[in-house]
Known about the structure:
The structure holds 2 protein chains of 2 kinds.
Chain A: H1 2-7, H2 13-21, H3 25-29, H4 33-54, H5 65-71, H6 76-89, H7 94-100, H8 104-130, H9 134-144
Chain B: H1 24-39, H2 46-78
Amino acid sequence: MSQSKSTQSSLRPGAAVLAWILPGLGHVAIGQTRRGFLMMFGILFLFFGGLLIGGIDVVDMKQDRLWFIAQACNGPVAFIADYFNQSMLKTADLATQARMTSLGNINSTGTLYIALGGLMNLILILDAFGGPDRGSEHRRRRESD
Amino acid sequence: MQLIAWIPFAGPLNSMQSIWYVLLVPLTFGIAVAYKAMRVSSLENYWRQVLLMTTQVTVGIVALGILLILFVKYLVPIL
């Protein structure tokens, strides 16, 4: 009875906030360090991969608002990218804008990378908030061995 | 010349414009890395699971693409 009670996961709002601030940090904070760093690698790989492919233009809160809702789940890093897009690219001269704005498949792919990374991080935020306490499971297994 | 003007993380990688579909592989890899880190009960076979999921999703999307081409090119004209 006491064991089944201890396997129940409690809600962790602090871990969820940390998971949004930096992907994977919520899991690191609740003791699932290796999992957390792997999640961080996966989400940041998608985010910076998207920026590498499509450039800063693929994160645009004003022109691609629906996409940005998904991208915002990546955390503050998405808002920083949007800030650089609005303050540097959108205010630049036309020649620079034409050179730095992504078009066609490259724009779609870059946008998709960051949006899917954001939606994936949303799942990880929910897991950090109310997912199973895997750290204690491992500890119990080790103790029983 | 176009590559010299490219600024990583700021400008678009236009050299990939004609082979954009290759970028599906790193996309599925990134999703698999994050998803499997949450999903697997033990991290012992983690990278094997990631590789498996990357392959499954990539093959699945390619198969759907081929089916769609066959449908549009051969089945729709018959209808």
